[in-house]
């Protein structure tokens, strides 16, 4: 294992394949699995009556085995992140970075990258993943802006998954137009699974999967929120598939429900990551 905690994995376990497994093996380029103590799935994503999948325990192993050049990052009890740089879309590249125990996997392109570098005091060589990490750290360390504005300031096509090992906190988001394929689900044990490929999420979560909501972000402390309409609550929208079977819910901005906007007073030493 190198200094960033990265290791290349060649698993011998979980070699049993479902017949359809090979169909999505080459499509998966981004995968994350989080323990429910780190990222609790929102209401509606996993329902008792919804058919479960095979579970997430073998997904990371399968990803590492099936992807050429796959890299898997162990997050300890928090979960794992895996990615591959094979067959990248040059317009929507995948980037991975680690800074001060903050791990981030980013796919896409930021259009206003120059202005964000200036905003966060970054050098010319900083790329998209470094910008997201720095934006998160600024937010975490008593940044002056709410999380919704931090994400809204990112203009482009993107999806990112971030994990802060110092606080066991997650932060992930997708742009308002769904410019990058991004799916999530909850396995039978409540683990949250995220990927750019719907089929691998289905494999682990069964019917408990859905596209990640456009224009939304998720944090460990506050759950799922809209960065486009930060003052409004999200409402759960029941969903059925083409066979009429109940699936995970989707989420829509509730025009009638407003959030409470009061910010609690905290001491100077408080960690603001619990308030974004």
Automatic annotation (TrEMBL):
<dbReference type="InterPro" id="IPR029055">
    <property type="entry name" value="Ntn_hydrolases_N"/>
</dbReference>
<protein>
    <recommendedName>
        <fullName>DUF3700 domain-containing protein</fullName>
    </recommendedName>
</protein>
<dbReference type="Pfam" id="PF12481">
    <property type="entry name" value="DUF3700"/>
</dbReference>
<dbReference type="InterPro" id="IPR024286">
    <property type="entry name" value="DUF3700"/>
</dbReference>
<dbReference type="InterPro" id="IPR044828">
    <property type="entry name" value="TSJT1-like"/>
</dbReference>
<feature type="domain" description="DUF3700">
    <location>
        <begin position="31"/>
        <end position="253"/>
    </location>
</feature>
